[in-house]
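A quick word before the example. In earlier lectures we treated sequence and structure as two separate objects. From today on, think of them as two lines of the same record. Here is Simple sugar transport system ATP-binding protein written that way.
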Amino acid sequence: MVAPLLKLNDVSKSFAGSNALSEISLEVKPGEVLCLLGDNGAGKSTLIKVLSGVHKPTSGTIEVDGQQRVFESPKDAGDLGIATVHQYGGTFPLMSVARCFFVGEEPTKGVWPFHYFDKKTAGLITVQEMQKLGITRVTDGSRLVGSLSGGERQTLAIARAVYFGARVLILDEPTSALGVKQATHVLKIIMQARAQGIAVVFVTHNVMHAMAVGDQFAVLIHGEKADEFRKGERTREQITDLMAGGEAMAALEAELASLTGPVRLP
Ligand SMILES: Nc1ncnc2c1ncn2[C@@H]1O[C@H](COP(=O)(O)OP(=O)(O)OP(=O)(O)O)[C@@H](O)[C@H]1O
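And the structure line, produced from the sequence above:
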């Protein structure tokens, strides 16, 4: 049996006495996609920040490769191969694609102090790595990031994380700002990362997207793990109802019906 790469044991995080996360236990194995589902304010961003070393848990522990770890900073998490890609790809619109790919890891030419950014090598590698993930329309590393589509930007950020050795890829709402075609492309890339043995944590409020790629699921509500299941164990309706709060939906339906006649919300 494959051991978990990343594991949370009863992790809680509170801000000024108010609990953003309460005793969350989760694990993700290599070559698996863990979907973290939750509505606004459920605690998804806080959980990402705990996993990526931005916040220290108030209580509970984190294990990487079976060993307990304390992240003092995002660098500690990064050094263990935990990479986070933020919603808009965390990229800089006025930077070239190649600069952005290599930011902080720039290949150089020449001898110190006369060394300089090796634009050509960086451009070639960036274009090549994006092509591996199906982006064929970016053929020039000096193109500005701001000229890429949302899906291409996400791909750039994921390609970067994979190239620099991510073992755990945390994706923060990677599909939420994208159209259907681009979202499908990003979902394909998630499956590609999974096939390479990367452990993917896919954070989303989109149940359909999660169901398309997830192996394991956890639903967060008000900072608590409200449900946890494996692929095929819940229907889309069951998950959506849980996330929206079945009672709240029923009340809304009744209210709308009193104004317009019977309404059935999806
Ligand atoms: N630094 C902070 N200080 C105080 N409260 C915080 C802080 N960060 C998050 N919270 C609170 O923790 C709760 C969970 O927030 P979080 O941002 O993790 O939710 P989320 O699921 O990511 O929501 P969204 O999808 O809207 O981004 C919220 O009530 C939020 O106000």
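Notice the following. The first helix runs from residue 44 to 51. We will return to this example when we discuss secondary structure assignment.
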